[in-house]
Amino acid sequence: MDSNSISEPKSNGVKKGGARIIVDDNDEGLSPTDLSEMLAEGTKESHDRAENCQFVKDFLRGHIIKDVFKRATAALYFVYSAMEEEIEKNKDHPHIAPIYFPAELHRREALARDLEYFYGADWESQISLSAGTKPYVDRIHEVGEADPVLLVAHSYTRYMGDLSGGQILKKVAQRALKLPASGEGLNFYQFKGITSHRGFKQLYRSRMNELELDPEAKQRIVDESNRAFGFNMMVFSELEEIGNTIKEEVQEQVSGHAELIQEDDFNKCPYYAAKMAANGNPTYALQLVKTLVGRLPCQVALAAWVAIFAGFTAWYLL
């Protein structure tokens, strides 16, 4: 092939305004001063911290509590509602218009369908803005009103993450929560207007790099993106605390139920304790001995069983 020839750009299948958007898959022309590269490098530590927080690690292992997942969906609904409201208000802003892709990216309606699946038709009356999510929502409204260029940071942080790691989370959640293969409850992760995630991400980054921004403005966007990661981690921490509380409540209920069985039902039915002890549970084994010793007729039976066991042991050793 002629080294001077130029490869044909590839289509990523995304349409806007009735025209097919063409994007070149070649990233070799990127510069360290391009906004996409500054964001990738400047948010690396924040990205790593977010990925390694306990909530995300548990999620990736499939340790997902359905109630916590529902609350996470509600938190995302408030975040995306705020972000997309401000993007819509500023869609003609010179720094927002080039990355304005409502049909391809906006998540509010998808999240509403997920919340209806989890909570029912009256889902709006069952959710509220949590203390851990409110600072995030407030900040989005603040920058949308006073400094719209910083919406670029929030848009990049959320949407690019959804098109990347979010697809892994979708598969984990579907398996762990046994959600329908039809995608109900997971509409948030489905970008039906995008046929190639990789191609669209390249398009989006190229649009960001074309924004007319001085070095100071670019750095402010990087700083705001790090701040967005911080807000996301606040939401994760809140969800983790809720999950821990649910686990403790369940554990207390189970412990209380076990105590009722041990103190009451064992005395009524020592055969149940014998069955559980045979399955290798030491708690039930100790309770069985305690129950039997406490009953005179059972003392004789216990002594007989001990004698028989000793006899078999002696026979086996000989």
What's the short story on this structure?
Keywords: Heme, Iron, Metal-binding, Oxidoreductase. With 318 residues, the chain is mainly alpha-helical. It is 66% helix and 4% strand.
Structural commentary:
InterPro entries: Haem_Oase (IPR002051), Haem_Oase-like (IPR016053), Haem_Oase-like_multi-hlx (IPR016084), Haem_oxygenase_CS (IPR018207). GO terms for molecular function: heme binding; heme oxygenase (decyclizing) activity; metal ion binding. This is heme oxygenase (biliverdin-producing). Its EC number is 1.14.14.18. This protein folds into 2 domains: 222 residues, Heme Oxygenase, Chain A (Up-down Bundle); 47 residues, no CATH class. Helix content is 66%, strand content 4%. It is built from 14 helices and 2 strands, in the order E-E-H-H-H-H-H-H-H-H-H-H-H-H-H-H. Helix 4 packs antiparallel against helix 6, helix 11 packs across helix 12 and helix 12 runs antiparallel to helix 13. The relative contact order is 0.13.
